Amino acid sequence: MSDARPEILIAGSGPGALEAALALSRNAKLNAAVTLISPQTTFHYRPNFVMEPFGVSHTARYSVGEIIRHPNVEQWQGTIDRVDPASGRAYSPEGDEFTFDALVVATGTEPVVELPPPAITLGRRGWLDAVKDVVTEIDAGALRNIVFTIADGPTWKLPVYELALMTADRAERRSDQQVDVSLITPEDEPLAIFGETNSRAAAALCDEFGVRLRTGRTASAFDGGEIELNDGTRFAADRVLTMPRLRGVAPSGLPAGEDGFLPVDQHQLVNETTNVWAVGDVTDFRVKQGGLASEQADAAVRAIEAHLTGGGPAEPFVHEIEAVLLTPNRRVSMRARLGDRTSESLPPEQLEGPAAKIHGRLLTDRLREVAEL
Ligand SMILES: Cc1cc2nc3c(=O)[nH]c(=O)nc-3n(C[C@H](O)[C@H](O)[C@H](O)COP(=O)(O)OP(=O)(O)OC[C@H]3O[C@@H](n4cnc5c(N)ncnc54)[C@H](O)[C@@H]3O)c2cc1C
Is the overall model pTM greater than 0.90, yes or no? Predict the structure, then answer.
């Protein structure tokens, strides 16, 4: 490494980008000048979203600047829409040019809406208000059939289970109607990414709270009164809430696949590049989750350190997922080791005190230090 400080650019401000910024700015060996570029200056703690329509919790918001505050880090509000890895340059749509020795792309995803309104697309602008309206209708005894669906393809599955459990519990406690809550999922077993033991636990929770599971299927149409599944089954549905498939939103100049995801190696290095790493939901890793985004960011930082300081081989991404499933009356810890196609359940952690929904080696503690907005 030359005497000049290395320049490291991070695109994004979700869990992957924030964990990378924390790890890079505190890395004394690198002593890098880090710039984080994102259109957002506020970090919304998404996991809490599922509780908000039920009035159980509010969604925590933090200042991105406050989270990453460190003499080695600068924040730039904007986007990177083009990257030229060969020259180590990235460009904003307005024509700003940034040079980098290493770039971390953590630009996330966008939903692909395959089940149009009147179905409610979860995770899309305005969805929280739509779910609150459903809760109001439950309380008024106006609904009899509520269906949650998960699209086939990469998506966030855990929050759909949480929402379905919360909805079924709400209906049981507040509605004077018999309300059927069902969950349609392409998975062969519920929450299969967490392995067999956790999957059985998820099935038992659905049973306990009265969520009817229909696995191995997806929804193909909803007309406002009936839902149709891909096997041709039709049944009554007053409201359908669907978690869409996700596609990656990577800047151009990188070898994104048709679905927008960036192919990476076990150190998060983007294929066909030597100086661009990608972490989190924008990568082609089969599971999308904030905790994994942070874990991948730590692996990318280890690889960047090895690359820029000429160090030995870095420890790769460890492929372990940790999650906390929120149910109406308890939090359930789920851990698994992820293979290319299969998952093996690991023993759950004992949950005491407030458990972080997004596990980040540095981010979890940092969010405890920073005041909410
Ligand atoms: C309701 C809900 C509940 C969830 N619950 C959990 C949970 O309990 N635990 C968990 O671990 N995960 C959970 N998730 C998933 C988690 O939120 C995502 O997996 C995680 O946010 C992905 O992090 P990321 O850093 O890859 O990308 P994101 O968080 O999507 O962030 C992408 C960032 O990149 C920025 N950006 C986009 N384009 C550009 C560009 N061109 N240039 C610069 N910046 C750009 C965006 O503005 C954004 O700041 C949940 C998601 C939802 C919707």
Answer: yes
User: For a pocket test of ligand 1, which of 107, 132, 322 has the largest count of ligand atoms closer than 8 A to its C-beta?
Assistant: 107
Strands 120-121 and 226-229, sheet pairing: unpaired
Task: Report the nearest-CA residue for atom 6 of ligand 1.
Answer: 47
Question: Which token pair is 124?
Answer: 């899309």
pLDDT at 46: 85
Ligand 1 atom 51: residue of nearest CA = 46
**Cα 125 to ligand 1 centre (Å):** 14
Residue 290 phi, psi dihedral angles, 5° rounding = -60, -40
Query: In 3D, which of 105, 106, 124 has the Cα closest to residue 115?
Result: 124
Q: Which residue, by CA, sits nearest to atom 16 of ligand 1?
A: 290
The per-residue pLDDT for 355 is 60
Residues of the chain with pLDDT under 70: 1-3, 350-355
Which element (helix H / strand E) includes 331?
strand 331-338
